[in-house]
Amino acid sequence: MTTLHAATANSVGLNLSLMCREPVFTSRSAQETQRLMRQVLVEHELEWPRGGVDTAFYRGQVASCELYALRYGGLVEIRPQPFEDFVLVQMPLRGSATLESDGMSYGVSPGEVAILSPREQARVVWEEGCEQLILKLPLALIEASQQALADDLPSGFTLAPVSRLQRPLAMRWFRLVSELLEHLPEGEASVAPSRWLQHLEQSLPLFLLSHCGVAQQDSPAPRQPTRQLQKIDACMREHLVQGITLAELAVATGVSIRSLNTLCQREYGQSPMDRLRGLRLEAAREYLLARPHASVTEVALEFGFGHVGRFANYYRQRFGELPKQTMKSQA
């Protein structure tokens, strides 16, 4: 059982080394994982449709904010009950996740942020190997910030059940979180918040409310998954090890090139070929983790990267480390 791969090397520049010195728990049991996670968050159901259970959970607290670093291992589906006194901010460090609640759905990958505040049922899916940093923001902080922004927010504004921050906005958010991580206590004893830390703590919900409020005004219609998107995603995954052009992808999914670009930009914040490359990189990483003695050149070629140097560069940009470093961590 391994520690979090993304604790010190991830594409968003967050250093979790202080937080991830010792896990709260690790487990290969689905029942134990569900029982322990229910104690931390809310009543929820966990299912592993694919892949084994390899849970690693770390926890830290700064003032009234709780931070969790978490991996489940295999593909996991989470169905939490509505939150009553907090909001969860999920930040993938490795791999991707999909969040659905109250008819809204967003996919997030490293470099993006999802804000989950379900009022009814929710469904969250973490892909195999997904690792995330999660911030638990007390509802009291959110409400205080909402009052402070009363003149700037639309009348009757509430946080959407699911919201998403993309680059470059998400990178500004990560700078706030990075500062928060630097205030993690060294030992068990908690320290009274300084004036600066109080300001930082208040800045977190102010940032989310300000920018999620703007997003809601600009885009009143929530984005929902469509059959076209499902077909596009399935087609991409079928071609992880085969070459396919943009035009061929459009023909295979039954849409025009323009529509394909629009759908991918709207749902993933990426062009179709960037999305496909990201899926190939994730598949290559999973392969390397499972086979630490494989040849990097062979893996690059296996997943459609004809130039090994470019593969290594793309890989480092996405995961914060070179392929050889990934293999050494498993050796």
UniProtKB/TrEMBL annotation:
Under the cellular component aspect of Gene Ontology, which terms does the record hold? cytoplasm
Q: Start and end of every HTH araC/xylS-type domain?
A: 230-329
Going by the UniProt record, its keywords in alphabetical order are:
Activator, DNA-binding, Transcription, Transcription regulation
Q: Can you supply a Gene Ontology BP term from the record?
A: positive regulation of metabolic process
Q: Report the SUPFAM superfamilies cross-referenced here.
A: Homeodomain-like (SSF46689)
Subcellular localization is given as:
Cytoplasm
Which InterPro entries is this protein grouped with? AraC-bd_2, AraC_XylS_family_regulators, Homeodomain-like_sf, HTH_AraC, HTH_AraC-typ_CS
Record keywords: Calcium included?
no
State the PROSITE patterns in the record: HTH_ARAC_FAMILY_1, HTH_ARAC_FAMILY_2
Q: PANTHER family given for it?
A: ARAC SUBFAMILY (PTHR46796:SF6), HTH-TYPE TRANSCRIPTIONAL ACTIVATOR RHAS-RELATED (PTHR46796)
Annotated function: Regulatory protein of the TOL plasmid xyl operons. XylS activates the xylXYZLTEGFJQKIH operon required for the degradation of toluene, m-xylene and p-xylene.
Name by which UniProt lists this protein:
AraC family transcriptional regulator
Taxonomic lineage of the native organism: Bacteria, Pseudomonadati, Pseudomonadota, Gammaproteobacteria, Pseudomonadales
